[in-house]
Each structure stands twice: as C-alpha cells, then as structure tokens.
C-alpha cells in the first residue's frame, strides 16, 4: 500500500509523539521512512544601519540550523533503528514549512505524509494546526494526521 513515508518534525513534544507513532505505523506496513526538519531561510539584517559583529553569516546560520535539525531528527533515527526499518533524514530550508514538506515528499518519492495535530478546533486550530492544514491543502498524496490530545 504505502512504501515510503515522510515524517516531518519541528522537535516539539507533539512532533516526537507523532514520530514514534509514524515509525510504528511504518513497521507494521513494512515501509521506509524519510524524516524532515524544515528551518527558516537565512534573513539578512537589512533593517539596521550597522550589522553587529556577532551576526552569523548565511553559511554559519545554515550550519547551526543543520545541527539543530539533526538533534530534532535523532529520536526518529533511533526509533527507526530499534524498529529495524529503512530510514533517511534531511534538513531543508524554506520560509513555508508546509510547502517544503510537500516538496520534500515529492523529491524523495514518498507516497504518504504522516504528521501530527493537537486535536484542537476553532481558534486553537488556526493558531496551532496551521502547518498541517496547509499541507493538507497543498498535497497531492495522502496525508495521515495523527491526533494527539492536549490536556
């Protein structure tokens, strides 16, 4: 049915719970997993006259964000290793995480995106489920939304 699943993460507690559920799902259907962390693009500080000397270069920023991203992807890597399933991870850069998630799914030949939602509705959904909602509206492949209740 599904052979390659994309698991987006932002390193949050919700994302980690979704990662573990996605790895378990992938194990049950014998699918491969691609985990992705999307960092914002570098923003050159054009709004100030003098750039502080401690402002990172674009290369420094990207290197730091790749390190953060790999830290956030580590739980997925360990869970996949323990489950015995094929695993890849990637750190991408884009100002729209939803667009990059959809693009990465296509780029890596994924046939399912498995991502989380808080299970909120109304205003809470507008504020906290916006990336999932955008992926659902942009995506041409199935998206499985793992609902995690917030107490």
From TrEMBL:
Pfam family, one: Usp
InterPro entries registered for this protein in UniProt: Rossmann-like_a/b/a_fold (IPR014729), Universal_stress_UspA (IPR006015), UspA (IPR006016)
Domain UspA: 1-145
CDD domains per UniProt: USP-like (cd00293)
Family, per entry: Belongs to the universal stress protein A family.
Stated name of the protein: Universal stress protein
Organism of origin: Undibacterium jejuense
């Amino acid at each position: 049915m599904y052979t390659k699943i994309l698991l987006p993460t932002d390193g949050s507690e919700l994302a980690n719970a979704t990662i573990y559920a996605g790895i378990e799902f992938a194990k049950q259907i014998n699918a491969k997993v691609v985990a992705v962390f999307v960092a914002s693009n570098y923003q050159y500080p054009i709004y100030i006259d003098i750039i502080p000397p401690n402002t990172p270069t674009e290369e420094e920023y990207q290197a730091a964000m790749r390190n953060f991203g790999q830290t956030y992807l580590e739980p997925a890597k360990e869970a996949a290793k323990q489950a015995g399933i094929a695993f890849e991870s990637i750190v991408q850069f884009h100002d729209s995480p939803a667009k990059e998630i959809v693009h990465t799914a296509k780029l890596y030949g994924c046939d399912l995106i498995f991502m989380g939602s808080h299970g909120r509705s109304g205003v809470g959904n507008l504020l906290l489920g916006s990336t999932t909602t955008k992926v659902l509206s942009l995506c041409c492949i199935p998206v499985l939304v793992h609902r995690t209740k917030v107490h």
